[in-house]
Amino acid sequence: MQTPLLGAGTCTRIDPVTPIDDRLRAANAAAAERVHLDHLKASLVTDVMAHQDRVQQLATELERERADVERASSGLLGFIGDVLGVGAEELTREQREAYEAQVRLREAVAAREQLRTQLATIEQRLAQLTAAAIETELRGARAAKEAELLENRGPEGAELVELGIRITSLDIELVPLEEAVRAGDAAVDAFWEIVNALDQAQRPSKKDKHVDRARGFAGEAEAKLAVFHRAVDELANPDGGMDGFAKLVEAADRERFIDSWLKQLFSSGIDAARADLNDRLGRLRASLVPIRTRRDELASRRATLVADRERLLEPAG
Fold first, then answer.
1. Same structural domain for residues 85 and 47?
2. Which residues sit opposite 5 in a β-bridge?
3. Which of the listed residues 119, 145, 171 is the one where a domain comes to its end?
4. What local confidence, expressed as pLDDT, does residue 317 receive?
5. Is there a single domain that holds both residue 110 and residue 21?
6. What is the DSSP string of the chain?
7. What is the pLDDT of residues 253-302, one digit of tens each?
8. Which residue from 8, 47, 198, 213 has the fewest beta carbons nearer than 10 Å?
9. CB-based contacts of 279: which residues, under 8 Å, 6+ apart?
10. 121: domain range?
11. Has residue 317 been placed in a domain?
């Protein structure tokens, strides 16, 4: 069975006996070519749109010049020009301007079509260099390189094993941190929706549509806050203490708030309800800070380990 190679030029295939380093070089070259072509395509799309606007502008200008020629050569104006002896000169000038407008339009159309041709060529090549195929080939080539290093049992293979263990160890803590940060951000966004709805409300009345929207957002915020609290409770404790990140959440914030908050809204008014929300939002954002900091720290360490791993998997030479 042959293995697809995504390199420069037309799509070709390589035999499995091809050295692994050659396969890696070809896959890396294909990935780099894809990135380069994506940038070129974006630039060309912008240029084609600009040239299309230019063509439309010049086409309008040509129509106007042709109308001037028609006006100078026919009808009452043409007759008066002939009588006064100035018609031929006026007609010649209008014809020259119309011709020049036609030349400009022809040149603009040619330039636009040239760009379209270049864009079509790039799109055709990108259709060959699909992102999914490149990613699959890169994974396969790196897996083959990794297997080769491990099989040879040299120092690079031992280092590769050690890096894999360290990355896995980081992921055990990092993945829940990522989930907690996402859940916290979602809860923050939900609270902002309530605040924004209250800012548009006129009075704390159930008939006010903005108050009604705020009530709906409050239900969503309470649900998302509960998800965040569960995610925090599942986080590993980096300091080795008993509570860990769970101690960041105050006991009062773990209780349901929507009923008491709505009661406050209709009894004490919008300003009091908004102030309560801002307090809750402030505590929520404060609790996210150390979690996000720990996430960023581990993510940075993991990125360094992954870079070291990728270095070992680069083709030799």
1. yes
2. 12
3. 145
4. 58
5. yes
6. --EEE--SSS-EEE-TTS-HHHHHHHHHHHHHHHHHHHHHHHHHHHHHHHHHHHHHHHHHHHHHHHHHHHHHHSHHHHHHHHHHT-HHHHHHHHHHHHHHHHHHHHHHHHHHHHHHHHHHHHHHHHHHS-HHHHHHHHHHHHHHHHHHHHHHTSHHHHHHHHHHHHHHHHHHHHHHHHHHHHHHHHHHHHHHHHHHHHHH-SSS-TT-HHHHHHHHHHHHHHHHHHHHHHHHHTS--TT--SSGGGGGS-HHHHS--HHHHHHHHHHH-HHHHHHHHHHHHHHHHHHHHHHHHHHHHHHHHHHHHHHHHHHHTSPP-
7. 788 887 888 888 888 888 888 888 888 889 999 999 999 999 999 999 99
8. 8
9. none
10. 3-145
11. no
Gyration radius of the chain over CA positions: 34
Q: Which of 145, 168, 197 is the last residue of a domain?
A: 145
Which residue is it, tokens 């070259």? 29
Q: Same structural domain for residues 119 and 208?
A: no
**CATH number for the domain that contains residue 38:** 1.10.287
34-56 in b/e form (b: 16+ CB < 10 A) is: beebeebbeebeebbeebeebbe
Which portions of the chain are predicted below pLDDT 50?
Answer: 1-18, 76-87, 242
296 and 187 within one domain = yes
pTM: 0.56
Q: State how far Cα 126 lies from the chain centre.
A: 19
* Torsion on CA atoms 165, 167, 172, 175, rounded to nearest 10: -160
Same domain? 265 vs 165: yes
